[in-house]
Amino acid sequence: MSVVRFVQNFSQRRALIASADARAIEALSVTLGKLGLLVEPLGAEGAQAPLADLDAARDVLFLDGDLHAPPIVPTGPTAELPLVPLVGLVGVEAPSRLRALMLAGATAFLPKPVYGGSVYSALYLAVNEHARKAALGSAVEELEQRRRQRRYVVKAILIVIAEAGLDDEAAFQSLRRAAMRARLGLEAYCEQLVRERADEDLDNPAAPFARAAVD
After folding, report:
1. Which of 112, 143, 150, 182 fits 91 for a cystine, CB–CB 3.0-4.6 Å?
2. How far apart are CA 54 and CA 83, in angstroms?
3. Membrane-spanning regions, if any (predicted)?
4. Which of 58, 63, 31 is nearest to 46 (CA)?
5. What gap in Å lies between CA 25 and CA 41, rounded to an integer?
């Protein structure tokens, strides 16, 4: 897993504020503007509508937990994680509203009324925790992908043993060298090899018997 670099400067980012609370919007707009963010209040008119044109590398969403019909936040490549960092604005501290913000993917909370001195901390936590979770999710997905491909390594070794007459260790080393030449991971190269052999056998049903006769 690669090391996540912590972001400290949020200049040139865009802050989207989904709230019907005029005081919260004003307080956030002033403080976020001082931090160099472009502020776009969404108000409540986008209720229950999907948020469009979100930029995962630029946007941060401030979502008010007091909205009765909040906008739909799209998820990113990692399941259960929103496409952009999300700060939950907490007014009424009811468990149901806190749970709704958690389910939306909030990685930081900011109580209302909003005070300027607490905005940077919430922004810092939301952006960096979102990045950390996204990196962790990508690492888990990569490991799962390699696990799924591992069976192709075994099949590819058997193919090389049958076609080149090598033992299992020599066949494995041969595949490693071939994968390096192809600039592919071992698992990906073996999957490609197995699929190519399967396609050849489909195109020429006599191919497996011909290879067996040669062996």
Report:
1. 112
2. 8
3. none
4. 63
5. 7
